[in-house]
Amino acid sequence: MDVKSILKKNNFTFEKKYGQNFLTDFDLLGRVVEKSGVNKDSTVIEIGVGAGTLTSEIAKRVKKVYGFEIDTKLKPILNETLSEFDNVEIVFQDIMKISMKEIEDKIGGKYTLIANLPYYITTPIIMRFIEEATNCEAIVVTIQKEVALRLCAEPKTSDYGSITASINAVGNAEMIEYIGREKFYPVPNVDSAVAKITIDKNKYEIKDMNAFKKVVKTAFGMRRKTLVNNLIKEYKITREEAENALTNLNIPITARGEELSAYDFIKLSEII
Ligand code: SAM
Questions:
Q1: Does domain 209-271 have CATH number 1.10.8.100?
Q2: How distant, in Å, are the alpha carbons of 134, 152, 180, 228, 266 from that of 157?
Q3: How far apart are CA 187 and CA 138, in angstroms?
Q4: 138, 199 contact by CB (below 8 A)
């Protein structure tokens, strides 16, 4: 399939505001889908189907694909590129305007999210599926390399941040593959990488998700401040109370947010 010719024939104009940088290397896309761990029994959600290149590599390997796409100009193109598949359903809607309940009711069971995400909503999409989804088993996303490094970072490194801790609380992230910018059409200003998050909601018992989210947000609120100082400010507690909370959990009182594991944050949220 020559996607570039199909796009040209349809006079398709790329919308920068939608983060439209398409992948047209079918070997690369096939490899990403293989590494995602899906099989003939799987259901997949794809966000941002574009010209349907990744969609077709997914459709070949799974039972059903639900694709979401904001740009209706892609309709005639997708009719052509996906014509051979009867297991693909495309919903032309803004994914950010559909509730998680609506998405999951439509799918009606377990699924994997596979996507080459539009860069401007990468983090909100990942966080929504991490925090709100109940049936999502894994998230395999092509994203800006720097963001992928954050998702997979270890504590005590500069890449480790609130998103890393949030992911580690309900799953595990791993790097699947690096993708140079030259692989995209049109070529963007940044390199990308594919990260896989395997969700395991039973990894830890989180008694109060909102309390956990608040303590993580607080810890990374002022990155250069110590955790104690961030806690004092947000929770209106004394220095002694903040230091006691950390000491009880064997966390040094000089620690900064990036030194705490997801488990440390869960325990801290229970006592703070
Ligand atoms: N999957 C295709 C590929 O790999 O070539 C396209 C990926 S491109 C990086 C991102 C796609 O997301 C674009 O087709 C864009 O129109 C679509 N998109 C952007 N914002 C969206 C939104 N809010 N909801 C659904 N799709 C969106």
A1: yes
A2: 30, 11, 24, 19, 20
A3: 28
A4: yes
Q: Give pTM, 2 decimals.
A: 0.96
pLDDT tens-digit map of 193-203: 999 999 999 99
3-class state of residue 47 by DSSP: strand
Residue-averaged pLDDT of the chain: 97
pLDDT(222) > 90: no
CA of 69 to the centre of ligand 1 (A): 6
Residue nearest to ligand 1 atom 6, measured at CA: 50
Ligand 1 pocket test: pick from 21, 29, 71 the residue with the most ligand atoms within 8 Å of its Cβ. 71
Q: Spell out the CATH class of 3-199.
A: alpha beta
- H or E element, residue 197: strand 192-199
In the chain, where the domains are located? 3-199, 209-271
3-state SS assignment for residue 25: coil
Banded model confidence at residue 22, pLDDT cuts 50, 70, 90: very high
Distance of CA 43 to the CA centre of its chain: 17
